[in-house]
Write a structure and sequence with these properties.
There is one protein chain. The chain has 160 residues and is an alpha+beta fold. The chain has a domain at 53-160: Glutaredoxin (3-Layer(aba) Sandwich). Helices cover 28% and strands 18% of the residues. It has 4 helices and 6 strands; from the N terminus they run βββαβααββα. It has helices at residues 42-53, 76-87, 106-114, 148-158, and strands spanning 9-11, 17-19, 27-33, 58-64, 129-132, 138-142. It is globular. It starts with 8 loop residues before the first strand and ends with a helix. The model has no long low-confidence stretch (mean pLDDT 91).
Length: 160
């Protein structure tokens, strides 16, 4: 079977297995997140994007990772509380994963293979973003420093 975005699954912050095929027909923005990072305030911008476009088919999926300077030291519960309390995050969040190395989550191995970045197959830092179109094709990779407002302009042009 060909690997496509819809073949993957991941555990939600609440411990449920979520199949990516649940997002068929939606435009998906996948972000590796951290709560103690200089870029953490991007949660706010991401939430704004989500609220602005969710009725047009956008879903944002947050994947916490502790692989960069120990910036996600908490457990699922503290991540969930931090996201909601500090940033009002209402988009789906998943349990902590590795995004680089041998233990990288299979979804991230796939995304890095499909859309290489400046470091080739590596994720450079927290808040690297991958955009999947409504047909499940990875179409764009955004750098960690690309602010959600910049992505807004891109989405405006590309959402139906």
């Amino acid at each position: 079977m060909n690997n496509t975005f819809y073949n993957f699954e991941a555990k939600s912050l609440q411990g449920k297995d979520i199949k990516m095929e649940a997002y068929k027909g939606k435009t998906v923005l996948i972000v590796n997140t951290a709560s103690k990072c200089g870029l953490t305030p991007q949660y706010e911008g991401l939430e704004k994007l989500y609220r602005k476009y969710k009725d047009q088919g956008l879903v944002i999926l947050g994947f916490p990772s502790n692989q960069f300077a120990n910036q996600e030291p908490g457990d699922e519960k503290s991540i969930e509380q931090g996201c909601v309390i500090n940033y009002g995050v209402s988009f789906p969040m998943f349990s902590i994963i590795d995004v680089n190395g041998d233990n990288a989550h299979p979804l991230y191995k796939y995304l890095k293979q499909e859309l290489k970045g400046t470091l080739g197959n590596k994720i450079k830092w927290n808040f690297t973003k991958f955009l999947i179109d409504a047909e499940g094709n990875p179409v764009k990779r955004f750098a960690p420093t690309t602010k959600p407002e910049k992505i807004d302009a891109y989405l405006e042009k590309n959402l139906k």
